[in-house]
Structure formats: C-alpha cells, structure tokens
Amino acid sequence: MDIRAMVLLGAPGAGKGTVAEALKAATGYGHLSTGDLLRDAIRGRTPIGVQAAAFMKRGELVPDPLILALVTEYFDRAGNGRGYMLDGFPRTLAQATRLDDQLNSRRARLEVVFLLEVSEAVIVDRLTGRRLCRNCGANFHIRNIPPKVAGRCDHCGGELYQRPDDQADTIRKRLEVYRRQTADLIAYYADRQLLQRIDSDRPRDETVADILRRLRVLDPQVGARS
Ligand code: AMP
Q1: pLDDT of residue 82
Q2: What's the DSSP call for residue 178?
Q3: Tell me, what's the pLDDT at 133?
Q4: Does pLDDT of 39 surpass 90?
Q5: In angstroms, rounded to a whole number, what is the distance separating the alpha carbons of residues 108 and 135?
C-alpha cells in the first residue's frame, strides 16, 4: 500500500475546487473532480453528459451508476500515480463504499478527509461571484480571485463563464442536497478517525497553507516539489 488518497469534503462553495487546484503542484497527486468530469462530459455531449445535464441543472445529485462509471474510467486512465485528491466525490455513503473498493483494488488507501467549513453567507457570496474558464476549467471569483484581464483566464486566456447551477435558486437546492445526502459522510469519516476540520472562511492561501502543514505530517514529500 503506497498510494495515498485524500478527500476534500464540504458544501458547494466551501472551496474544494480552488484548494485542489492550489494543492496539485505541491502534492503531485492526481485531481479527481466529478463535477469537472461531468461538465466535460456535457461539453463533449457524451451519453453520460446527456443524461447528467438535467440533474445538474436542477442542483440534484447525478445518479450513482453514472458517477461510478466516470470514476472508474478516471482511475483506469490515471494509473498508479503517487496519490489521489478527490474533490466532490464521494457525495453519498454508497459512493464512499465504492471508493473504498476502488482504492483497495489499486493498492491505495484513504489517509485523510479534510472537511472545509464555511458559513452559509460566505458560500452564497462565493458561488454567485464564481467564474470558470471554459477552456481549462480554472476557478476565479469576481472579487476574491479576480482574473488579471476581466473575463479572461490567467492561465490559458480562455473565456470565463458563470456555471448555470451557480444561480440563487439552484444554490439553495444544492445546499439542501448537501445537508440531506452528503453531510452523513462527516460522521462516517469521523468514526474512522479520518476527518480533519479546516476553517475555510479565510483567504485561499491561508487555507491551503493549513492543509499543506497537515498533509506533510502524513506525507513528508508534500511541498518538497513546490
Ligand atoms: P461540483 O462541481 O462538485 O459542485 O458538482 C456540480 C454538480 O455535479 C452537483 O450539483 C451534482 O449535480 C453533480 N455531481 C458532482 N459530483 C457528484 C457526485 N459525486 N455524485 C452525484 N452528483 C455529482
């Protein structure tokens, strides 16, 4: 068992994607974001994308069989890197069990689950101000992480857009889905002694530095490459 896996857990807008992006270089872990995979599938009009689109638009969870197909494909493609960073997956207890199976079959083990905690007022502000790059998927925020050139991605120059599910009504629905379906995972991982709570109500760099400090305790190579 030498491949490490970590989960980023938290409500929509808690900062999972932003933190994952910042951690990528420092950890060298592969980044699995089921939300990104779904958005790619919708853009590519694949059979999974076509089926998932309506659920996402309503702010509901996409059915497990579709998610598990995407996740299995990701792991097959990613091969055996030095670690995995899971963002937005698992979102239900059933998915958590399937994740355990996937990791076991790849000689990987889940070492830590970071729960990003943030107040609801901050969540709504983050989601309504969020902008994504249409080309590379990078995350921005109109005030907190503004692009250097308005409407353009700092990394690739792609066009920035607002996710259709980042509208007020859908945000409320997604928060309700989180409380009803995903929050159970907090107790599940706390019982397994894997949960670490992170204050994500701070500027991104402070949150990332806090996570990196904790990761280094588990994996001394983290940060050595950044
Ligand atoms: P995210 O980018 O993580 O905020 O996900 C956006 C949307 O994709 C969610 O509101 C769900 O509709 C869907 N989604 C992403 N990940 C999952 C998952 N693990 N299980 C079910 N639905 C998901």
Answers
A1: 80
A2: I
A3: 94
A4: yes
A5: 31
Q: Residue 226: what pLDDT?
A: 46
Phi, psi of 183 (to 5 degrees): -60, -25
Is any ligand 1 atom within 6 A of the Cβ of residue 185? no
Is the Cβ–Cβ distance between 111 and 5 less than 8 Å? yes
Cα–Cα distance, 117 to 160 (Å, whole number)? 26
* Helical axes 204-218 vs 16-27, angle rounded to 10°: 50
Give this prediction's pTM: 0.90
Q: For the CA atoms of 53, 56, 60, 61, what is the dihedral angle to 10 degrees?
A: 80
What is the distance between the alpha carbons of residues 121 and 103, in angstroms, rounded to a whole number?
A: 36
Mutate to test the pocket of ligand 1, among 8, 21, 43, 62 (most ligand atoms within 8 A of CB): 62
The stretch 139-167 carries a mean pLDDT of: 94
Ligand 1 touching residue 83 (CB < 6 A): no
Q: Is the CB of 12 under 6 A from ligand 1?
A: yes
88 C-alpha vs ligand 1 centroid, how far in Å?
A: 6
For residue 79, pLDDT beyond 80: no
What are the pLDDT digits (tens) for 125-134? 999 999 999 9
Q: Which residue has the CA at smallest separation from atom 10 of ligand 1?
A: 59
Q: Backbone phi, then psi, for 84, in 5-degree steps?
A: -125, 140
> For residue 177, how far is its CA from the centre of ligand 1 (angstroms)?
10
Two structure tokens written together for 38: 């779904």
Choose the catalytic residue: 4, 39, 91, 126.
91
Q: pLDDT per residue over 212-226, tens digit each?
A: 999 998 888 887 654
